[in-house]
Write a structure and sequence with these properties.
It is built from seven helices and five strands; from the N terminus they run βααβαβαβααβα. With about 220 residues, the chain is of the alpha/beta class. The relative contact order is 0.19.
């Protein structure tokens, strides 16, 4: 059986961004820590895992301050065509949509994920012109603390509604679903970014889901 290609499309928590310190600094976790690359190690031969995480990326919202390229919908077609054929797209977005300036609900954010699902299925980016399978991952709930807190007012409560809203969207659209909040916690330093331990647990949880989806290559 040929190699299975898994595209991990997300934001800073797919990129591997650390918690933001009080002085505004942060770093990128090393390759041995970031969940997509830990996932690749866990899955082993027969799978190729691609990291496509951009700090600040939204589902389908233009960011008036950080730039239109933060809109995950705008960039997605190029990413799909760059990496095709793709067997599985792992979508973990929605945290940045919680920013106060966007004024959207958890249900709205889930609709953004639905829009991304539609887009993925419009490019025949899977093997032999088929559509890739899709695994929707609800991001871990946030807390309003540290440097990001002024930009996330009300976001913590909304974030707790993301998993049920995204589960419904995934079911309605024939996508797989996983709740990252079941295994991963955000760093109390800034309430948004995953700890190194959370990256490890998320990789393990997703590896189990993906093995069930794809079997043994």
């Amino acid at each position: 059986m040929s190699e299975r290609v898994i595209l991990c499309y997300g934001d800073s928590n797919t990129h591997g961004t650390s918690a933001i310190a009080d002085d505004g600094t942060w770093f990128r976790y090393g390759t041995g820590t970031r969940w997509p690359l830990r996932l690749a190690d866990l899955l082993g031969p027969g799978y190729r895992v691609i990291e496509e995480g951009l700090p600040g990326r939204t589902t389908c919202l233009d960011d008036p301050f950080e730039g239109e390229f933060m809109n995950g919908l705008r960039v997605l077609p190029a990413v799909l065509r760059t990496h095709k054929p793709v067997d599985l797209v792992v979508l973990m977005l929605g945290t940045n949509d919680l920013k106060t300036r966007f004024s959207v609900t958890a249900a709205d954010i889930a609709k953004g994920v639905a829009r991304l699902i539609t887009e993925i299925r419009s490019h025949q980016a899977g093997p032999v012109g088929t559509d890739p399978d899709i695994l929707v991952v609800a991001p871990a709930p946030i807390t309003e603390t540290g440097v990001p807190a002024p930009h996330m007012v009300g976001g913590a409560e909304k974030s707790r509604g993301l998993a049920p809203a995204m589960a419904s969207i995934a079911a309605a659209n024939g996508a797989l679903f996983y709740d990252a909040g079941l295994v991963a916690d955000t760093d109390p330093q800034d309430g948004i970014h995953l700890t190194a331990e959370a990256h490890a647990r998320l990789a393990e949880g997703l590896a189990a889901e993906i093995r069930e989806w794809g079997g043994t290559p």
